[in-house]
Sequence to fold (760 residues):
Amino acid sequence: MGHLNFRRRMLRAALALAGIASTLAPAAVQAQEPRFIVVASTTSTEQSGLFAHLLPAYRQASGVDVRVVAVGTGQALDQARRGDADVVFVHDTAAEEKFVAEGFATQRRNVMYNDFVLIGPKADPAGVKGKDIAAALKKLSAAGQPFVSRGDKSGTHAAELRLWKAAGVDLAAARPAGYKECGCGMGPALNMAAATDAYVLADRGTWLNFRNRGGLAILVEGDTSLFNQYGVMVVNPARHPHVKAAMAQQFADWLVSPAGQQTIADYKIGGEPLFFPNAVR
Amino acid sequence: MSVLSESFGAAAALVAQGDGALWRTVLLSLQVSGSACLIGAGFGIALGASLATYRFAGQRLLVLLVNTLLALPSVVVGLLVYLLLSRQGPLGALGILFTPTAMVVAQSVLVVPLIAALTRRLLLGSLAEGGDQLRSLGAGPGRTALLLLVHERFGLITVLLTAFGRAIAEVGAVMIVGGNIDGVTRVMTTTIALETSKGDLPLALALGFVLLGVVGAVNALIGLMQWRGTRTPAQAFG
Amino acid sequence: MSSPPPLISLHRAAVRYGTTLALDGVDLTLQRGDRLALVGPNGSGKSTLLRLLHGLLPCDGERRVHPLQPEERLPTFAMLFQRPFLLNLPASWNVRVGLWLRGVPRAEHAERCATALQRVGLVRLAGRPARELSGGQQQRLALARAWALRPDVLFLDEPTASLDPGAKREVEALIAALAADGITLVMSTHNLGQAKRLASRVVCLDQGRMLADLAVDRFFDGASLPEAARLFVKGELEWAT
Fold:
């Protein structure tokens, strides 16, 4: 009877479905790979391209896969507090010291620094160009030109707030006209600045890697208060026993070792190094 | 608009080059969203069919809930699943956060309401036409649901394709629970988001075109299978 | 003349849809071997009465189903609808679904399905998707599905209303053959000629009330009908007196 042919067709469909389903299994199996650690770091570090350069070298040296989850500094530290990372690698010394004080890490160590630069429209309507960031920010707040702030509890955002304070501008009391908080990462903030001819504080690494510059250029650089210190911390296994302490420690040690430091120094864009290793030995 | 044509050309070039990293990313997208649809279908079809054929107290409320969940933003789903899978969360001990498995979980949660709502809608039509007759043959709500699902099997394929489209196009959930880790949990949509943040808009658009092309190919393939399935083979005697 | 045993009896049965009274105070006893036709204008409650007898609707008043004698079990029912709902499966599978739903042992499926399809003359089309059959063939398939269940009572809701004349004749012939086998029939129809051909007993309804309940020849000779019923019959059959 006709039902035999129908049955055959249904069987074929079921087999096809099972075939498709079986190709999906590997995606789940990947999670079982044993030798890896999770590093919580920042979007600016990721977007500078440093990890694409650094991590293959580390895998070569140690056989350990480093999985970087790149979020804002504040989020990275919160993630580590929750135990969802093995290592924290961010650039906000004050927040890192607080992290250690809270007991989530036993120590923080310097790894490298890069610097921030003040980016703005080439025409520079606020006239801030120069080497003095405090003076530049004072002029900006007076001129009321558009300024994009990341506003996302990131290391860059924290640095930006410190610089406004050092320039004597009280953001809470009187926001400069044109000050916009996007609550976003460095890249989107730069996109926004490019689109609206605004000023923005950025880390050099992201800027050098950034493709959508529009009419923007570096206006202020070289001021020592623009230096941005990166630190590494291993999440304390006493607080989170599941942390892969041995592999995490191995990675942190490598970053501050001569080999790691040299690898960092070797990372250049257009012949220019982005980060300057400064681990204390 | 030159950006668009530039990106379209770049997309074609990417495909022609056969860049290994690109295809691995595409494959991961397909695997994650495909798995999520199949898993979501298990729950969603059962839920949707039951909502169509069973009568129980609070049914209207449940239908309302399912329809409302259709508007659940993917980033909210991502956040909820993150809290679930975080070490501090109830399922933290599984240790699947920041792996493709977590992404499959998040997208499954995302598509279940969609599949349920669409399945229910699909069955209500046939139910109106033949619910009485099935009942007179002695079918209870469970068997009615089963028979109508078989009856409407081609419509179900469309439901699943719709869910697949929703899953593979979303970025909020997989970004949060996957962490966009290079080579591990980076999928097409999170790559596009990353390239956009790096300001490389033409590349981001090009990747967008590639993703569209892949989804289009999947739809075409399924459409072809369906067409062959509904053609009448000339049968004399089975 | 001994009266045949009752199968289903209704006493002061009424059915409400919201505020509308679809059936109002109907007394009816269906007897084994009856070939009962329910006639009346649209909206008279024929379909409602049919479904009520089957048990598909709740009612106010009393509905009792009596066990069969001498089998000592409750009668089984099957129903045929004006537009049969067939699943998007081969024709034979539709019959098997009916058997499955009724709980017939799997071992019997093939044989009962084959016999049923043979009875209605659809063996050749057994493998065809049911939805591709013509209107008449679909109704014959529905009949096969119902017949395979070996029901004691077969309910038919305007079974030929949607069919062309040729198909109508085929289906009527099958229904008559089933009746000859001893199945009790309850059929609603607006086609009085059909009622005359197939029924042994006619019930006429209007606006939810029963106007007449008579043996078929008495119904159609006109003399014993109440006025309202006679007008209805006259309207439908030009040559009725």
